[in-house]
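Hi V.,

Quick status before I head out on leave. The structure for the redesign project is tokenized and pasted below; the design run finished overnight.
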């Protein structure tokens, strides 16, 4: 095993959006490529944003995508616990360490005092009050008060936060593996709270302490975290850990299907497309949404699609299995520009995976879809079904939506075409055809075809007069696989029943 150690560090604040899964994927790819370690760390220190069920959702989504973990709350490992709420004491110790070496300080300002100060500043025309090197001397903290005063306040159990003492004027530079050199000025940065009054760490403290203690070598995360990196570098410096600071790679934004603006969680519901891996059953309808899985996607297609949202192999190749991605992946080929979430492309990938799947695999996919409708069919029937439908489905749910008639009565007849094609005066002839078909015991596609063609010849009827009638009569629609194959699979009894019923429907449409 190499020393590459990467982590996916979601906060369990709700369902994991596609950008989050992509972050997990890229971390996973790097770990697997380098023979490293992929870690799941649950960043749940913000109790107010905690959503029950979110951690399970995250784990299920990773598992569905095939992203296996080496260390995590479930797997354990040498650097646990892996849930930040179980590491409180570690963060408190580390915050104290920074107090001791003068890199952080106690701040006793109450929320009311902070508000009042902000108001006074506003009145003086300063709308951006910042708690920093220029203002901390005029606030109530262990930098401005005497040590006797501080000791008294602590002895009185006065609530406090611990803040990072951001240097007045330093340049903070990082070499981001995606964005190149990025510079921040410390004078633009506030003295971030590291430990809150309730003793809980903020994201910044917990994240840095854990990345250090868990020996993380690469931090791969969304671009929205780039600004925080300045504080993170200062924290590494404050702890004296700069030499082992991880490398950073900030991933480009995922853009809306239009290419304009960041893809938001609400876009899924607004556009009727999934932007989450799995569905989420929220308390209200607005909080609920569908996922790629429920939409009928194969996880391999979703992984392939996500991999190319921001990364490119540098070749024309588009189809990649997870193993191929592991080989081909490189951080250098991650783009800086936002990646457009092209749902049609996602569907194209899915279609490719369906076409590549074996009949057995597709039968296994179709069975539970049918079981949900209370339908079960033998493998021989289902094998022919998937062969006939394979090239006509984009997502798995299409097997039912476009092929339900293989299993149950026709629900809708194509009215326009049946009106156009049905000639009541031909009903007698069609009834003769029914009789002829019924004499065929268990015909194959070719036998059905031969029987229909000889009927057409004898009665001098063209394809256009016969096939649409059979198609709509048996399946309700003009679309679909070879009608002779469908008829052969359904069997002649069923075909006869359906045609009899359809002719009645056609007549009433004609008269209606
Ligand atoms: N908890 C952060 C999140 O929810 C982690 C960001 C990071 O990877 O540092 O995305």
């Amino acid at each position: 095993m190499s020393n590459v150690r990467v982590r996916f560090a979601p906060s369990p604040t709700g369902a994991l959006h596609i950008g989050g899964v992509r972050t997990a994927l890229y971390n996973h790819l790097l770990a697997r490529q380098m023979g490293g370690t992929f870690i799941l760390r649950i960043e749940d220190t913000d109790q107010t944003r905690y959503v029950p069920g979110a951690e399970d959702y995250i784990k299920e989504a990773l598992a569905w995508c095939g992203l296996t973990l080496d260390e995590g709350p479930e797997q354990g490992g040498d650097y646990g616990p892996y849930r930040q709420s179980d590491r409180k004491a570690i963060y408190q110790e580390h915050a104290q360490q920074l107090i001791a070496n003068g890199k952080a300080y106690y701040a006793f300002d109450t929320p009311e005092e902070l508000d009042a100060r902000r108001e006074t500043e506003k009145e003086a025309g300063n709308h951006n009050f910042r708690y920093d090197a220029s203002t901390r001397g005029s606030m109530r903290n262990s930098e401005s008060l005497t040590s006797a005063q501080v000791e008294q306040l602590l002895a009185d159990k006065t609530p406090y936060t611990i803040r990072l003492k951001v240097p007045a004027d330093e340049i903070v530079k990082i070499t981001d593996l995606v964005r190149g050199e990025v510079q921040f000025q410390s004078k633009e940065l506030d003295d971030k709270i590291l430990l809150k009054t309730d003793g809980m760490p903020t994201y910044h403290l917990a994240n840095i302490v854990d990345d250090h203690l868990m020996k993380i070598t690469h931090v791969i995360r969304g671009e929205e975290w780039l600004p925080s990196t300045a504080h993170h570098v200062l924290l590494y410096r404050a702890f004296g850990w700069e030499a082992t600071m991880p490398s950073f790679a900030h991933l480009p934004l995922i853009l809306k299907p239009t290419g304009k603006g960041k893809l938001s969680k609400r876009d899924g519901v607004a556009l009727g497309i999934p932007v989450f891996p799995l569905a989420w059953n929220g308390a209200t309808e607005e909080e609920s949404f569908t996922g790629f899985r429920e939409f009928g996607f194969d996880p391999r297609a979703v992984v392939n699609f996500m991999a190319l949202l921001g990364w490119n192999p540098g070749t024309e190749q588009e189809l990649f299995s997870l193993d191929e991605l592991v080989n081909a992946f490189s951080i250098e080929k991650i783009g800086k520009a936002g990646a457009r979430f092209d749902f049609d492309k996602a569907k194209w990938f899915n279609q490719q995976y369906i076409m590549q799947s074996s009949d057995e695999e597709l039968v296994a996919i179709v069975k539970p879809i049918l079981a949900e409708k209370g339908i079960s069919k033998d493998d021989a029937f289902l094998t022919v079904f998937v062969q006939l439908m394979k090239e006509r489905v984009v997502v798995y749910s299409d097997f039912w939506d476009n092929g339900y008639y293989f299993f149950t009565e026709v629900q809708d007849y194509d009215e326009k075409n049946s009106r156009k094609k049905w000639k009541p005066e031909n009903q007698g002839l069609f009834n003769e055809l029914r009789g002829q078909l019924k004499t065929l015991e268990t015909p194959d596609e070719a036998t059905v075809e031969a029987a229909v063609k000889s009927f057409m010849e004898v009665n001098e009827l063209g394809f256009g007069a016969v096939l649409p009638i059979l198609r709509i009569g048996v399946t309700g629609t003009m679309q679909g696989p070879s009608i002779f194959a469908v008829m052969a699979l359904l069997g002649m009894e069923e075909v006869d029943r359906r045609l009899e019923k359809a002719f009645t429907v056609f007549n009433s449409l004609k008269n209606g």
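Above is the designed sequence. Residues 9-11, 43, 203, 207, 221, 225 surround glutamic acid (CB under 6 Å).

G. will cover questions while I'm gone.

Best,
W.
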